[in-house]
Design a protein that fits this description.
It is built from 17 helices and 17 strands. With 454 residues, the chain is an alpha+beta fold. The protein folds into three domains: 193 residues, 2-Layer Sandwich (BirA Bifunctional Protein, domain 2); 108 residues, no CATH class; 93 residues, Anticodon-binding domain (Rossmann fold, 3-Layer(aba) Sandwich), CATH 3.40.50.800. Strands 1, 5, 6, 7, 8, 9, 10, 11 and 12 form a nine-stranded mixed beta sheet that branches. It has a five-stranded mixed beta sheet with strand order 14-13-15-16-17, sandwiched between helices. Bound molecules: histidyl-adenosine monophosphate (HAM). Histidyl-adenosine monophosphate binds next to strand 7, strand 11, strand 12 and helix 13.
């Protein structure tokens, strides 16, 4: 009934206004035609595989959450500019999830007391953010989320680095294609508040400016920096800090300014990078602070090294106190989100995406006369029972149509069943990759299976 009414209303509207509806999806979202879905499935399959390699368990949550969940810790930008929210019929302020971490924290808070540590979970949710659609940025994206709670400091961080690296290398990427840029929230906090003597709100504003460093032209960045009206000493310390672009330079800076392990145990961190053999992937970047407010420890972004696609395909960090908003004791967590849009751009930029423009089927079974129909359908059924991906021509196909159809449907093999084959109870099979063609007795299922699958 409801549907009838809405169709009726749409008809009235469109007739009245003499217009047709757009065939395009809502701005910043995508329709996934089969060829697009194949690519997305390819990305997701690797995500599932790698997460499970590391013992992470899948979880999921609702598409809608109360806005307060994000208000608590996600930060002003998300709440003021990016969230899709509405008041529901029960007067609740509800949002379409713009990120997964608050949902995850809410769920972990429910089982926190009884769950064995560490808790290793992953998900691939779709998220919506009201952003200006552009390369690498849409309003709906899917995001591979990997998080570990209650893991030992540093070890947990390095595990998620390793997991992210394993995922990207599983696509054929290596350290010439991407790098993990790291920083530490406590270091930034200490520097701004203790060394530059900034009040909390000014430190936060400076953090927000730093977060935009890579997006702003240098002149615009300096112009905005000037608005802080820093003293010579403050400015000089800040400008020295943002030029630290290696672990070595950072170590010198920390020593010079007597910033010890209570702020960031950087020595242990860099020693572990060495032990895990990850130095070639990790780089210190003072401008990584992350836009989300809940991070309290390591923060990182995986950056594409391709000169035409210098952008983050993944962002994450450590957060100590997210469970506290649910009245639970603090439980340290660390994790990341890696987006499907940016991952696809990354793989495309480096030529690492296989050709998935066609489906992939093992065999197209065709018959050339109606008399061959039943035998073909029976053979299709028997092969499917053995796990062969079979498509059939649903009508008698002339020979000149068979091979173009097999090509379009991405079939590796094709079968022919014409009068000649039928009279001898045989079927002809051709492997389109090798060109090899063999005739088999129609009931010799084992041999047919072997020919198709070898
Ligand atoms: P985020 O940096 O907001 O972090 O997003 C992580 C990644 O998601 C980005 O690096 C990008 O690849 C992708 N992404 C974000 N927004 C968009 C968009 N509008 N269009 C396309 N891709 C996008 C978080 O969301 C954290 N909750 C991640 C996290 C998990 N931290 C700890 N655990």
């Amino acid at each position: 009934m409801g549907t009838d009414v809405s169709y009726f209303m749409i008809e009235m509207l469109t007739e009245g206004m003499n217009m047709t509806l757009s065939k395009l999806p809502y701005k910043g979202t995508r329709d996934f035609f089969p060829s697009d879905k194949r690519v997305q499935n390819y990305l997701f399959e690797k995500m599932h595989f790698v997460a499970q390699l590391f013992g992470y368990e899948p979880y999921d949550g609702p598409l809608l959450e109360e806005v307060d969940l994000y208000r608590a810790k996600s930060g002003e930008e998300l709440i003021n500019e990016q969230i899709y929210s509405f008041i529901d019929r029960g007067e609740r302020e509800v949002a379409i999830r713009p990120e997964m971490t608050p949902t995850l924290a809410r769920m972990v808070a429910q089982i926190n007391r009884e769950a064995p540590r560490p808790i290793r979970w992953y998900a691939i949710p779709n998220l919506m953010r009201y952003e200006r659609p552009q390369k690498g940025r849409l309003r709906e994206h899917w995001q591979f989320n990997v998080d570990i709670f209650g893991g030992k400091e540093n070890l947990a961080e390095f595990e998620v680095f390793q997991l992210a690296i394993t995922l990207l290398t599983s696509f054929g990427a290596n350290d010439s294609h991407f790098e993990i840029l790291v920083n530490h929230r406590k270091l930034v906090d200490h520097l701004f508040k203790q060394k530059m003597h900034l009040a909390d709100d000014v430190a936060l504003k400076l953090c927000k400016l730093l977060d935009r460093f890579k997006k702003l032209p240098e002149a615009a960045f300096l112009e905005q920096l000037a608005l802080f009206q820093f003293s010579k000493e403050q400015e000089s310390l800040f400008l020295t800090y943002i030029k630290l672009d290696s672990f070595e330079k950072l170590q010198k800076f920390l020593d010079q300014h007597h910033i010890d392990a209570t702020v960031w145990d950087f020595k242990t961190f860099s020693q572990m990078a060495h032990n895990f053999n990850l130095q070639s992937y990790l780089r210190y970047d003072p401008t990584i602070v992350r836009g989300l407010d809940y991070y309290t420890g390591i923060v990182f972004e995986i950056f594409d090294k391709h000169p035409e696609n210098r952008r983050a395909l993944c962002g994450g960090g450590a957060y100590d106190r997210l469970l506290e908003i649910f009245g639970e004791q603090a439980l340290p967590g660390v994790g990341f989100g890696l987006g499907d849009v940016t991952l696809k751009d990354f793989l495309n930029a480096h030529g690492l995406l296989p050709d998935l423009s066609k489906p992939s089927n093992h065999v197209l079974l065709t018959f050339q006369t109606e008399a061959g129909m039943n035998a073909t359908m029976r053979l299709a059924q028997l092969l499917r029972e053995k796990g062969v991906r079979v498509i059939t021509g649903l009508e008698a196909l002339k020979m000149n149509k068979v091979f173009p159809l097999a090509e379009k449907r991405g079939a590796k093999c094709v079968s022919i069943l014409g009068d000649q084959e039928l009279s001898s109870n045989q079927v002809a099979l051709k492997n389109l990759m090798t060109g090899k063609q063999v005739s088999f007795a129609l009931n010799d299922l084992g041999a047919i299976y072997k020919f198709i699958m070898e």
